[in-house]
Amino acid sequence: MVAVVEARQLSFPKPPPLSLSLSSPPHITSLLFDPTFLSLALYHSDSSVSLYPSFSPLSPPSPHFAFPPPQTLVPPPISSATFLVLRDATPNPNSLFVASSPLSGGSAVLLRFYILTPARKGFARARVVCNHSDLKSEASKFGVVFGVSHGVSVKLAGSVNVFAMYSISNAKVWVFSVKHLGHEEVKLMKCAVIDCSTPVFSMSLSFGFLILGEENGVRVLPLRPLVKGRAKNNKGTSQKNATNALEPDNKMDNKRQNLQNGMINGVDSKIFFSYRGKIVGSQSELKLPSNSHLNEKSDQHSESVKLRSIKLRQDSREWGASYIAFNHKVDNFESVKVPIRSVKAITIQALSSRKFLILDSVGKLHILCLANSAPSSEINGHMKQLNHTMSVQKMAVLPDNSTRVQAVWLSDGLHSMHVMAVTDIESSVSETENKETDERLLQTSVPQAIFSSETIQEIAPVTANSVMLLGQGSMFVYAIS
Length: 481
Fold this sequence. Notes:
Blueprint: E1 5-11, E2 28-34, E3 39-44, E4 49-52, E5 64-66, E6 72-74, E7 80-86, E8 94-103, E9 108-116, E10 123-125, E11 127-129, E12 135-138, E13 143-146, E14 154-158, E15 162-167, E16 172-182, E17 185-195, E18 202-206, E19 209-214, E20 217-222, H1 223-228, E21 230-233, H2 239-245, E22 263-264, E23 267-268, E24 273-275, E25 278-280, H3 292-300, E26 305-308, E27 310-313, E28 322-325, E29 345-350, E30 355-360, E31 365-370, E32 381-385, E33 394-396, E34 405-411, E35 416-424, H4 435-440, E36 442-451, E37 458-463, E38 466-470, E39 475-480
Parallel strand pairs: 1-5, 11-17, 17-27
Antiparallel strand pairs: 1-39, 2-3, 3-4, 4-6, 7-8, 8-9, 9-10, 9-13, 12-13, 14-15, 15-16, 16-17, 18-19, 19-20, 20-28, 21-26, 22-23, 24-25, 29-30, 30-31, 31-32, 33-34, 34-35, 35-36, 37-38, 38-39
């Protein structure tokens, strides 16, 4: 059976309002798409970003799609940005856009937050509440000043209620949680600080894992213990007593909800991924209870109980972290000593809750397979290199636990794009099968090849079978059926 490929050109939007006075209007350099809320961020050459809510390029019946004027413009400079999902006790999740900028000559980092309004008509600046000494809300700067050096660059990665920031100059990764307080107000909490002994080339937060792309492999850390944080009681009582004091009267199994950063209105950010308004993970959907009584009690005790960030080293064995190499499993935990020209993990994207696609610096693809691990135990996993002829520069895939065949879009960074079908037949065998059998259960094929008249700068998944492509002067949407 031959698949049908549909192509649609997207007309570029008009230049942002702040740039109309320039003699040379800025052009689009990159894009970021959030398939959960169909939100689109377009990066401009002047380091500004235009935000478009409810962007549906596949819905118009005409072959051409015209962008409306940008409703929200994030002014420059922007060093990195990410979308994350705000999931709380309310039935409807929300979208948050986070952007980082250098401040005071790079001596500090400015974090700006834009939340999707309830009417879904546009993004608005979010009011941020934080109680950490190195995080200061600045209304005049429309964001939060983080008292660490910005350095040459920072990188952000977002997930559900959580985002991470990596600074190469500080050699640290910070993990933050965000709680939606209602309307356009959010609470920012710093949960963990990771001291990096080796460079991090990519970062992913997906399905309850923080994955760091390193030399010759990746480092996998479970997200739950990083987000939980530690409680410190100012009145000298023990953490256990403070926990008991915050328990709801009905004595439900929510003992740790008020003290742990990772418990957002009683929802654990352990293994859940948001897709189109639903939480997907080991379960297809999670119904969230209302804990208004519990939240009210927590606010009353906020002054007596302080949250303390977790601190750990990148090469630590704490919290079940594990280093997994491309070609072999290392016996010790520390990264393999490799030459300067070693292969680096430059892109990490989730396929499903236990499988992740890794792109290395020489254009090869690897699938990281994680096994179920007991709590507090080291994460077990292995890596398999995929067979493909293209030297891959860009990739795009939409995570999905419900299907056995997934479309992975691959680009050589020039004029070619391949659609790789990855088939997972692992569900048909017993969980006791060994590693070698598990590796044979991943099958790949390339049923489609697409050629672009323009050099491909960026690709982003729109749905499971469609992708958005950014060329040098145009944007396109390709869909297969």
